[in-house]
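Reopening this ticket.

The earlier resolution said the output was attached, but the attachment link was broken on my side. Pasting everything inline this time so it's all in one place.
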Amino acid sequence: MASRASEQKRETAETQISLRLDVDGTGVYELDSGNAMFDHLLAQLSRHGMMDLTLKARGDTDVGWHHLVEDVGLVLGRAMRECVGEGAGIVRMASAYAPLDEALARTVVDFSGRGYSVLELRLGDSDLGGLPADLVRHFLESFAREGGFNLHLTVLAGANNHHKAEAGFKSLARAIRAALTIDERQDGRVPSTKGTISG
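Inline output:
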C-alpha cells in the first residue's frame, strides 16, 4: 500500500506553520504551537487516531490565537486530504463515542471529498488554558473543510469545558481512525457509487 503521509508548510504575514501527518502511524506526536491547551487537544487526535503528527507553528499571537489556530486547521486539513488521496479501499464513514469523566462526545465522519461540519460543542471559555472556546469550533470547521470530509461532532454531556473539548477530540480521533481503515473487501475500489470521492 502506498504511504499515506503528507508534509505541509504555510508561511504568511500572520503565521509560519510546518506540519507532517502520517495516518498509518502509531500515535506519536511532537507538537509546538505555543498554546499548551491546543497542543493537548491535537495530541488526542494523534494518540487516539494512531496518526503520527509533527507540528511547529508560530504567528502573530499578540493579537490573539485566531490566525494561528485557524491556519493550523487549514494546514492539517490539507495534509489529511493528501493522505486520503483517492480513498481507494477505505471504510469511508465511521462514528465513535468518547467519554471523559462526566463528559461524553459523539463524532460521525464521512470522507466524501465534501468538507462540511455541524458542531454542537457546548463549550465556554473557562478551564481551556486561555484558548477561546470559539476557536475550538473554528479549528474543527477549518479542518473538515480543507480535509474534504463531513464532520458531525456533538458533546452530549458534560460540565467541565476541558473535559468536553478533550472528549470531542478523542471521539474525532477514533472516528477518523475507523473511517480510514482499509477494508480488504473493497479490493482497492473507491467507496462510492460515483466512483470518486473527489467532491
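Reporter confirms the inline version is readable. The longest helix spans residues 66-84. The CA atoms of residues 7 and 160 lie 35 Å apart.
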